[in-house]
Amino acid sequence: MSRILVVEDDERIRLSMRLALEDEGYTVDDVASGEEAVAHFADEPPELVLIDLMLPGMDGFETCRALRKQSTVPVIMVTARSDTHDVVAGLEAGADDYVTKPFVAKELAARIRALLRRSRPTETDATVLTFGDVELEPDAGVVRRGGEEVHCTRTEFRLLCELALNAGKVLSREQLLERVWGYDYFGDGRLVDVHVRRLRIKVEPDPGNPQFILTVRGMGYKLAV
Amino acid sequence: MRARVTAAFAVGAFALSAVLAGITYFTARQSFLNERQTAIQRQAFVNALLVRNSLQASGTQVNQLVDLIDTLPGSVVNWNGQWYATSISVGQSAIPAQEQALVLGGTPATQRFSLDGSVQVVVGVPLPAVHSAYFDVVSLQELAGTLRALAFALAAAALVTTVAGAAVGRWASGRALRPLAGITNAAVAIAGGQLDTRVEAGEDVDLQKLAAAFNRMAGNLQARIEREARFTSDVSHELRSPLTTLSASIGVLEGHRDELDPRAQRALSLLDGDLLRFKRMVDDLLEISRFDAGSAELSIDEVDPGELVRQAVMTTSPIGEDGNRIEPVFPVEVAPGVEGLRLRVDKRRFERVMANLVDNASSYAGGVSRVVVDREPPGTGSAARSIRVIVEDHGPGVQAADRAHLFERFYRGTRSGQRASGEGTGLGLSLVTEHVRLHGGTVRIEDAEGGGARFIVELPLAEPETDGPEVLL
User: Fold this and answer.
1) B148-183 burial, b if ≥16 CB within 10 A, otherwise e?
2) Smallest Cα distance from A208 to chain B, Å
3) A4 pLDDT higher than 70
4) A13–B469: do the CB atoms touch at under 8 Å?
5) Contact between chains at B466 and A13 (C-beta distance less than 8 A)
6) Which residues of B touch A190 (CB under 8 A)?
7) Within a domain: residue A123?
8) How many CB atoms within 10 Å of residue A150?
9) Cα–Cα distance measured from residue B353 to residue B371, given in angstroms and rounded to the nearest whole number
10) ipTM score here?
11) B chain contacts of residue A23, beta-carbon cutoff 8 Å
12) What pTM was estimated for this model as a whole?
């Protein structure tokens, strides 16, 4: 059974989330602060972490960043606002996805399932894809740059694979949202935007002037051949 | 007010210049007349002396007198009861009777009179020593002409002064009122929603007080409105926490529905429905408070309008047994010229607009009859200025009187008899207005052909920023 760590300071919300997730078949650990989350993480590494943004002391962003330093564990942010600032900040801190309070338990469960399943692209026969000094092995789930492994979250990896498997082709935000995150037409495009930014930092020699992962204005993104 | 000041200046200038002109004229006239008259009198006395001397020399004959008189134009002499004159026109008959009586009675006299329409003056000098009286008749016509010219000039000056006064008044009042125009503009801006507009105090001490008072008022107003918007926002946020617990817990109960007896199941369904309503209300309130606080932002995508509308309509459909959305029962017609156009729009907000319009039609008008996407103005192809999304329903239409109210907050209308279950929050259409307005678009309602109401959302097509897709590094 997949182990999920819930980081939420409101006791009642925390308990109701535990109930809902256990009902879905997950094993749930819950903590009430970011500090406890970091401590707990080392002892019992979960397969997925749910972090509420509004935490006392170490806030959700900091907690996510702290976890990211040591792991590429899937992270879903729980936010009370869908304001641009909070969502983007949460994604830049390293989250894979986000849900807004109040969420529908079934939807949260669906997001978790999608995230846990997300590791490989669905159909590929390519073994190694390369561009620049980057090597991508979709099957093995490995990315190397200049010979050294680059640690990517599942989402980043999946996104990179999509772009690489369609090298030279423009993929729209909607397409990427659907293929990588499983969202429909009205998914949040910022998920794609921030993850592209994160990928550029990891694989581009000059992230501010990308050579490989290019923005095609008004249309989407593509990987240069 | 400007007109009043201008008129006041004009009247003031007129009064002043009229008085000055009047005084000048009458003073000048008096002075000229006296001077002339004095000169004439002097001359007359000199002439009279000549006549007396001439008459005193014994044995002066009439013809000698006449010769003398001939050299003195305008003279009329009475000698021993006989009248002698130089010209035919100016004779005894010309001299007024009063003057004659006085002078012949021995009193020297001067009189002004009118002769054939021209002004004359007659000076009479009695010469008792020689039983005679000397009269000198002089025309004042030239002087009269001079005085007339003077009067004219002064009148013209007064007129010019009046006009100049009016002009000065107009300019002065304009200058004085200009700072007020600044305050008027600021008031209009604030009324239009730009709450942080303030007025500059400027240099004028009097206006500084007004400006300061205005700014204070604007500041208070802004603080108040922001406080209220924050209150709504804060309350809604606070509500989200218990709602989260409720939602998660009810979700768990739903998962165990089969374990409940029928009554409990029905209770659970009620909980589900009302929780949904509650959530929507909180979302709508938060959304509206963001608009009120002026902090609503657009997150723009470039999309195909037809695809956008089709997807939005699908999202409003319920999910069927098989987990897929049920196809909508009404057609979505996309006009041919719309394909290929790119619309810059906030997808999330547009989806809310469509959801609200469809919801509204379902709740109050028996459902949507059709959705149309076309260009405005029609038939212009690439010159189209905006996209129209039209939602028509099966209802009875909306009375013209109700139309403006429909978009007001919490307006339920006169159709309150028709309350559907799972009804909206009353904010739906006002949110539609705000979302659309944020895009620079409009929404209005008309009658559909074949009855029913027709909601028309117009969204502007932005100018393309480049000629075509281009790779941006």
Assistant:
1) eebbeebeeebeebbeebbeebbeebeeeeebeebb
2) 9
3) yes
4) no
5) no
6) 299
7) no
8) 18
9) 13
10) 0.88
11) 251-252, 255-256
12) 0.68
